[in-house]
Write a structure and sequence with these properties.
alpha+beta, 37% helix, disordered N terminus, 92 residues, two-stranded antiparallel sheet, Imm8
Length: 92
Amino acid sequence: MPVSCWRCTSAPGRAGRGTVPAHRLNPSALADQLRRHPFSIGRHWLFVPELRPAEVAKWLSDQIAVLEAPTWTELAEKIGRVGEWEFEDYDG
């Protein structure tokens, strides 16, 4: 399957040390993924094999309806994993 993952790691002992995973998917791998999972989320992107607005709206609603968190801020962060929301990255 033509899918790959690579990690970028900062130099040991330097501030901000950590890993940043990045996933790449070529078009044929994405098509294969969508055959197995008809909805696939990428940061602020929803991939579907065919746009059917009513099905997309129901799927998104179902994904958000099951989210729980003790505070609005924590809930909003979880919602932000499903889709972009107007106050994401707001620092007021």
